[in-house]
Amino acid sequence: MADPARRLAENVAGDFFVDGTCIDCDACRQIAPTTFRDHGDQSSVYRQPTTEDETRRALMALVACPTGSIGTARHHDTRIGVDSFPNLITENIYFCGFTAEASFGAWSYLVVRPAEQGGNLLVDSPRFTAPLVKKIEALGGIRTIFLTHRDDIADHDKYAAKFGAERIMHAADGAARHGVEHVIEGEAEQRSGDDLTLIPTPGHTRGHMVLLYRDKFLFTDDHLAWSPSKQTLIAFRDVNWYSWPEQTRSMIKLLRHRFEWVLPGHGRIHSDSAEAMHAHLARCVESMKKTP
To answer: Which residues lie across from 196 on neighbouring strands?
Structure first.
């Protein structure tokens, strides 16, 4: 729980606040952008919720916060936030919420698919928490867990054990060490069923991968995201742990694919026509080539 004694001075007066344990993961700003802002190296409340929906979004941010850094001065029924997850993004794609500190607040996603199409798919891992587990059970459980890279695996082992799910991860990011059942090697793309393309994208880490679903939804984790300020797709140079030239080369590989959605672990979600997304990606590649 957030500590009122550590309430950040940047918060406006009122009910909701962020304390000094904030790790600046950006989750609250994405979930409730009318309430939370980035004031530098942390988040704070710049405007108190005034409507029922704004309060609900703020409570979603509170329960999703990986470090428990969001608090309130008065009592709220936090079940309002808890019961909002998994949160539907579009069609059959859900944001899991309950981000994990071990993953620096990275987002994970649930793709709900019929059993004959491979069953439900978890992309990266949220915290293992009873309310979320029950909701996922009600949606059909988890058949497969796709782990993009070593940074955002969180409680993957608990979800795999609970649902008997098979995990997919690249060997270069320690898949065998984590007990992963389906280990990917090399840089060749692989098809899984009729709707999944597994694409190794080394750069952020040696074994980073992205997942393309139905040639429409691209789950990118730390490889690619939307920038609201630049209004285009970007890569994160400052958190490139392995090789910027390799990440640039991996980005060029994506130019041969069509997609309409980018769903990252960090950074903003964005959707547009396949043609527009391709143009944004091409601009991103050119910018990366010019960045040392």
So the answer is: 192, 213
Instruction: Provide the domain limits for residue 130.
Output: 85-290
CA distances from 78 to 63, 89, 136, 205, 289 (A): 7, 21, 19, 36, 46
19 and 58: one domain? yes
Contact 97, 86 (CB under 8 A): yes
**Rounded Cα gap, residues 259 and 229, in angstroms:** 22
- Domain shared by 58 and 162, yes or no: no
The pLDDT value recorded for residue 1 is: 82
Report angle CA 257, 260, 264 to the nearest 5 degrees.
Answer: 90
Q: Distance between CA atoms of 284 and 287, rounded to whole angstroms?
A: 5
Q: Label residue 81 by pLDDT band (50, 70, 90).
A: very high
CA angle 212, 210, 277 (to 5 degrees): 60
Rounded CA separation 132/146 (Å): 18
**The whole model's pTM is what?**
0.96
Give the closest residue to 122 by CA, choosing from 97, 81, 150, 156.
Answer: 156
Of 81, 112, 146, the position where a domain reaches its end is 81
Domains in the chain, number:
2
C-alpha–C-alpha distance, residues 174 and 166, integer Å: 16
Q: What percent of the chain has pLDDT over 90?
A: 99
CATH number at residue 75: 3.30.70.20
Q: What is the pLDDT of residues 15-29, one digit of tens each?
A: 999 999 999 999 999
CA distance 26 to 12: 18
pLDDT in tens, 159-211: 999 999 999 999 999 999 999 999 999 999 999 999 999 999 999 999 999 99
Mean pLDDT of the chain: 97
